Give the backbone structure.
Amino acid sequence: MYLSPKSTHILRKCLFLGIVIFVLGIFLYGLGTPMVARAVSHNINQAITILTASDWQNMNLPKPELTPEVGKDCTVFYAADDKVALGGNNEDGRNPNTMMWVLPPEKEKYGRIYFGYDNYYPQWGMNDQGLFFDATATAPYESSQPNRPMYQGVLLEKVMEKCATVEEALDYFRKYRFYNVNLEGVMVLIGDKTGDSAVIEGNVILRKTGLYQVLTNFRQSLYESEAIPCPRFRTAVDILGKADSLSIDLFKQVLIKTTMGITLYSNVYDLKQGIIYLYNNHNFNKVIEIHLEEELKKGKQSYDLPSLFMETERAQRLREEAEAVEKNLAAQATAGRDPEVYSDYVGTYKTEGMTIRLSLDGDRLFMERDELPKLEMFPQSETTFVHPSLNGNLQTVFIRDEQGQVTRLIFRGFGMEFELKKDKATSYPYWWVWLISVILIMLLALAGWYGWRKRHHTLKQIHVR
């Protein structure tokens, strides 16, 4: 094969181009991870978690002064007959940053709506199949389900994604634990549009036997009916037990009679019609009707609940107090910020039931869990970050391997701790640039060497002649 001087010149240019691509690959390797993660997570809208007392001590942060006292808040109830299936709840607490977020149906997931706080941990939810849940706090008690595996995600979210009935939901609760600690502090009432409901206290499941079921903040399995310690529970049972028929107005009366000074909002949900009746800050004269089917058609969205109502003086005062505490926590956590190492943390981390994406916006690190909005993470140390919230803090700890690469993330809070592995596709997003560059350089170098050798041999023959 004889290559003309022009062809050899072209090959040399190609060789130079291959070297440039190779160098570019090295450059992109250094910058690629944050760039790709930012692009992937830009339009993707957190279990954002509540830390235990020991978590707060380990984090060297003060426990929020506004955290509600465990065992003295929230009332949940359910009732059904052959015509209606209704649920109701008073959400009691001192964090006025209440939220509602909507996740439309997608492949193998039902559409659902959640209510909670600014950490996007669901306090209660309802799906498009007419299944709802609501959780309440109680005093910690020894777990009697230590041998059950811990679902590697938020179990209540999994239930709402996959289940249409109480029986289907109970299969998950029988299989998995609530949390992966030895002390429990949460109970759940779950009901569906068929008329079935149950209260879950760890591994104790209490099924509905009459027309209604009530849950407050004590473990019903430990008390005889005549020794019930909660007046809100007795009030709800008394009203529901004496009712001739079930209606939205009846449930509204139960809510009014069981409100507390710290009640933030109240709901009645019609499970057969898919309608939620929302009341804010003790004001039962104004109601907002939320039609689930219509909200799901709008796509992923979230609402600040107070913005849906005229903010009251009480709500404004609580909001100012909450903002002051959260601002103080964020200021403490921001001390020692070193954004130079943040690019190492950017990427996607996964476990069985959870995906967390870390992205950069300037020198600020943001986290997205699954389909939820971004939350800013504040550094406590070079590897530990926290998102402070009065009603649930999230903590992440990044772990490097022996080569110094970030390969794992520890996610902690609300009694849960998960280890998520970093997706290699986001750790090394430009591996194909390396591969193509090396192959191209080798081919071009081989072609150039062969052309030079052939030309040199030809010139040698001409010189001999």
